[in-house]
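pasting for the record
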Amino acid sequence: MAKPVMGKLPWFRLYSRIIDDDKLRLLAFEDRWHFVAFCCLKSEGLTDEPDSELRSRKIAVKLGVQLRELDEVARRLKEVGLIDETLSPTAWDELQYRSDSSTDRVKKHRQKQGRNNVKRSGNVSVTAQETDKDTDTEEPNGSRPSGDGPSLRPEHVVEKWNEVASALGKPRVRDLTPERRQLVKARIAQYSIDDFVAVFGNIGASPFLRGDTGKNFCTFDWAMKKANFQKIIEGNYANG
């Protein structure tokens, strides 16, 4: 029976007792890292994808091994009971919590803001403070609503961008400067990690944004600007 999919998480729990885990201590140091990498892949949702050659190739690339080596790595980890037949870490659902994802909290926060601050006119919603200026300021507290898990951070967004940048022929972000941090925090105040993933996916699906036309203007900084981010997530460049 297939296991329920928890969905993507920007981070996962790694308990301090892992250093004394008898199963891990049976492995070579390299395979201990491979196990951590499989945890990352589970958190990203990759191990929940249907089994296929493409999935195996993706996993091999993530682990930094050849495709022919993947089976042997998986065999060693399965042999000590650290991963199952789907290459997912065993006892994952018992050790991770849905509350670690901020998506539900953000949705509730938006609904609350909508009741308090939104003026509705026809099918268009306009916040009381919204203007036509492309301002990139943070919320009064400078972060997303508090809850029982950590907030989405600029580092998470940069990490996700860098994962797809090379494939898209885009420059990776090397330095998270104060200016970039403020820009990303302004978007985090409005959107969830799933929204950022959707934006990066829309960039990859658009020849215009990919730079196939010869103008590779769609950089990380450009995509994070308020007006550009909104256009991308709404699919304005889908056919471009």
